[in-house]
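[scheduler] slot 2 assigned
[scheduler] job type: sequence-to-structure, two independent chains
[scheduler] chain ordering preserved from manifest
[runner] begin chain α
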Amino acid sequence: VTIAVEATAPVAAEFAVTYRVGGAGWTPQYEARLTTGSGAAKPAIDLVRRAELRQRTGEDWSDVALTLSTTRSAGGTRAPDLAPMQVMFFEPPEVYQTRKETMQRSAPAPAPAAAPAPGRAFGPTVSLEDRNVQASVQTAQVEASAYQASFQVPGRVSIPQDGSSKTVVLSQGKVEPTLTARVTPELEETAYLEASFTHEEAAALLPGPVALHRDGSYIGRGRIGLVAPGDKVELGFGADDKLKVARAPVRRRENEPTWLGQTRTDLREFRTVVKSLHAQPVKVTVSERIPFSESTAITVESISAQTTPPTEKQVGDKRGVSAWTFDLAPGAEKEIKVAYRIKWPGDREVTYAPQAMPGATSRPVN
């Protein structure tokens, strides 16, 4: 850092220098501890928001005050411009190419520039604490505006310049979730406990990993996406072993055409039973699907007489996906039936292809 100073006479002065450096950032992390409750006690989640800090600025930060900001100063400041796009007939290239053209076209493309490390920008200062946070820990003061939020952490902190991480608690609080056991029996005969709640803090939740605990036991790690104030948060807290799920095919009939042009038919019917071993009522949601087709030559119809009426269709705008939500009393069981029929020309073959979803792994359909 170079400072140009000009004075008319010798003088003793103290300068406060503010400058921007690269190589520093932070990433959000969360911890969610669910207490499922019993009897009159309602379920609750203790949610802790943390920041993992790293810096490689070339100098150690010793005993500094730290402010974390959600602004991304390394990114763009305006939307990119669109150039006009022309459509034209394809003209095949000439067979003959000069040696120079050949070398240019065969040369490897330049390597892309390294992406900046994930994280957020530092403002003035913040401190990281041990992951075993005590109940009396101080949290950051939050200043939220329409476009960004900043977290002013009390106290001072030292961060070495070697890139090693430290963690600071930004906020912690208690929320009352709604608990639902979710079942997708076609893929897995297991019920999973899900807790959902509305995010009511002034600052948005930024995308980051979350450590999940249920009734004092570590369950695993999940992920929180970008959640604005007032939006819904959904977290999975592992398998519910006190809900027994069984799914079995009841009937499958596929006819073969006996002459050219005859229609082929595939009829399928499934039965799912969910039984509760809980000592209190539980809310359960079962999801099932029937195929769909974009071809007018293939027809898919749900057989209403053999299908339990769903409580919701086109769940999450996913075609053919339906859900059944119900309260299950202790020791009770619920039966869900799904039946559908597919028709297509006898001289063609069909295949079942699940559509891929972001972050999901598709499984084959038998």
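[runner] end chain α
[runner] begin chain β
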Amino acid sequence: MKSKLIGTLIVGGLLFTGVAYAKDINMKTVPKNVEVKAPQPPKIVNDKDWKNVTKLDLSMKYDFNTSVEGFVADNSAAYAKEATDDMKEMKITKDKYYYYVSRAYATRNGLDIMKVKGVALNKDFDNMRSLADIIINEQDKRMKDIPKKADHKDINVVIKYRRDASDREIKAIEYMKELTYDLDAAINGWKKPKYGFSYQADGDKIKEIEAFIEGE
């Protein structure tokens, strides 16, 4: 009888301890007055937002505008110009297309330094770089026929052997004019985009310019 009573007390004690432990667990795992927050929808990123994150060497003097607004505006103005006989590039090379080649070098060098955060703007900058590369590469092809032993600094020799500008070079210059115009309109807002080649300006002909870039 005594052993039975002790057994009952032990079982009862275990049950009581188990209930207390369960209550303690419940209190710890389900705190009272905790507000359950609904999951938040993902933030919508605007592709047109941009930020200039260029890191400049303060010990250097740059020969181009390092603000995004200025860089874009200067490129637009440069490619919009028509090459004339009184331009330095024309006097030296007697080649109106070389003016745009010199601009292409300047564009590419500037893009090597300019760094921006912004989906649309980076895509436009990538296309500007690609067009600059095409202009430069096509110009190099024009010089292929100049003999290696000839004086390449003699403009008369260059004119004698220089090929005509290719259709691809001429078209790349035209696209660069139009892309930089639309990008300038989107960034600086003083004119309306009109060609449709800029991501930043919501262009509707971007596939055309990128198909040209990918072409041979």
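[runner] end chain β
[qc] chain β: Strands lie at 51-52, 116-117.
[scheduler] slot 2 released
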